[in-house]
Amino acid sequence: MCIRDRSLRVLNLFANAVDVDGARALKESFKVNTTLAKIDLGCNRLREKGVKELAEGLSLNNDSAIRTLGIRFNFISDDGITEFFNMAVFSKTCSLKHLYIKGNYYTELNIVDLQKKITENSIILHVDVFEKLKNLKQSQLERSIWISPIWANTQDAANKIKSFFEDHQKVGIVVDVRVRNGPKIPGRVKANIYAIVEFAHPNSVFRALRVASKKKAIIAGNRIKIYKAGSGVAVNVKPTSKHRR
Questions:
Q1: Which of 55, 106, 181, 234 would bridge 225 by S-S if both were Cys, CB 3.0 to 4.6 A apart?
Q2: What does the radius of gyration of the chain's CA atoms come to, in whole angstroms?
Q3: Buried b vs exposed e over 99-124: b needs ≥16 C-beta within 10 Å?
Q4: Confidence at residue 235, expressed as pLDDT on a 0 to 100 scale
Q5: What is the mean pLDDT of residues 84-106?
Q6: Contact by Cβ (8 Å): 217, 236
Q7: CA dihedral 11, 50, 83, 12 (to 10 degrees)
């Protein structure tokens, strides 16, 4: 349709059971179409393979007119979102100005990292999930870490995390611990729970990473990954018998 109808500007395929095969067909259209400006593919079944097909089509068309793309609620993981950005958004042929990705299986950590890269590359692009990061100041990022997976979204878990860094490892004063639920990931039994730990001083971030590098990042018998906020760098270790006590 996109190839044959040169007058088509807006295409709404919301909730149309579009999967990877549909994405492949759209890729062929994306590669040659120069009139379509907006397409909504929300609430479909694109997943990682499907969104990769879309990204490839967009990256191969220097004259693409697509400015708005909606891929909300499509079972896309962090890896899929990142690959889409690398192939389409960060390519020299990117024509997108508005991108809607809410409701997929991304982590806040990855979203912060992508927003940082958008800024570093001076790319003008509105991404819906970036809105919630506006109030997150750079000074907070410099003093924060992200840890996952967390065993439960409870105050007790938050208290144990705070005690681990403050009392057991002497990393520094913890200003706040925010435990959050991420979207459920297909194929995984455990809930997708992570935490943001904000310290009083930036030096505590590096101390926390050092704890992980020494194979001591075990809280309540649970192995955790420690990320520096705003980066994709993590250190994780496997729990030993003494950590399970």
A1: 234
A2: 21
A3: bbbbbbbbbbbbbbbbbbbbeeeeee
A4: 43
A5: 90
A6: yes
A7: 10
DSSP state of 105: B
pLDDT at 88 over 60: yes
Cα–Cα distance, 123 to 121 (Å, whole number): 5
Tokens, residue 189: 């039994």
Q: What angle do CA 63, 22, 18 make, to 5 degrees?
A: 115
Can you give the pLDDT at residue 5?
Answer: 66
Give per-residue pLDDT as tens, 31-58.
Answer: 999 999 999 999 999 999 999 999 999 9
Q: Distance between CA 10 and CA 189 in Å, rounded?
A: 39
Residues across the chain: 245
In a 10 Å sphere around its CB, with 0-12 CB exposed, 13-18 middle and 19+ buried, how is residue 242 labelled?
Answer: exposed
Q: Which two tokens stand for residue 17?
A: 């059971």
Selected residue with higher pLDDT from 41 and 190: 41
Helix (H) or strand (E) holding 157: helix 155-163
What pLDDT, on the 0 to 100 scale, is given for residue 134? 62
Distance of alpha carbon 200 from alpha carbon 163, whole angstroms: 15
Q: How far apart are CA 141 and CA 198, in angstroms?
A: 8
Q: Give the tokens for residue 5.
A: 């109808």
Identity of the highest mean pLDDT range in 34-43, 112-121, 179-188? 34-43
